[in-house]
Design brief:
By secondary structure, the protein is an alpha+beta fold. 38% of the residues lie in helices and 17% in strands. The chain is built from 6 helices and 4 strands. The chain has a 4-stranded antiparallel beta sheet, covered by helices on one side. It is globular.
Length: 169
């Protein structure tokens, strides 16, 4: 499948089947991050695959309403960027991590694995960060949900390219 086809096929899924993504496949997907552009090859991205004990701690920190959303997918991966404290480098590293996440999502799409990238508010709290062992020097970019698609979401209307591209003289 061409990259353009993968980009068109990628969807945000909110309904997943029960079967978790196996460790080997997950490692292959996350290895795609290494191909993202990164300033000085810093590779600042960090991924934490949530096991049942960690997920239980996060759900406890999140509260009942948010905890329900954490049960949507059978496999959850926290994506974060390791920061240096240098404002310019940190900005580039956050952007590089977002690019790495997109590559991982496209690789999952290529394999027919449903995905959802979201940042629950609990990840912005001290108890939520503690539940996942996130040190102060990392910026959370989101929680990646993986699993078999329960149903395929319809494509959503996108803005035409002319609405966000400008050719300068």
């Amino acid at each position: 499948m061409k990259l353009s086809e993968l980009a068109h096929a990628r969807r945000t899924h909110k309904a997943f089947g029960a079967e978790p993504v196996d460790r080997e496949t997950l490692l292959e997907l996350l290895a795609m991050a290494a191909h993202a552009p990164t300033h000085h090859l810093a590779q600042p991205w960090r991924f934490r695959v949530l096991g049942p004990d960690t997920l239980a701690r996060l759900k406890e920190s999140a509260g009942e309403k948010e905890a329900e959303k954490l049960d949507r997918a059978p496999t959850l991966v926290l994506a974060s960027a390791k920061l240096t404290g240098d404002l310019v480098q940190d900005e580039e590293d956050v952007c590089a991590t977002a690019a790495a996440i997109q590559l991982v999502l496209l690789a999952a799409t290529e394999r027919g694995i449903a995905t959802y990238w979201r940042t629950p508010s609990v990840l912005r709290t001290r108890p939520g960060r503690a539940a996942l062992g996130i040190p102060d020097g990392e910026r959370v970019l989101g929680l990646l949900h993986f699993g078999p698609p329960e149903r395929e979401p319809s494509p959503r209307e996108r803005e035409p390219v002319e609405s966000y591209v400008q050719f300068l003289p």
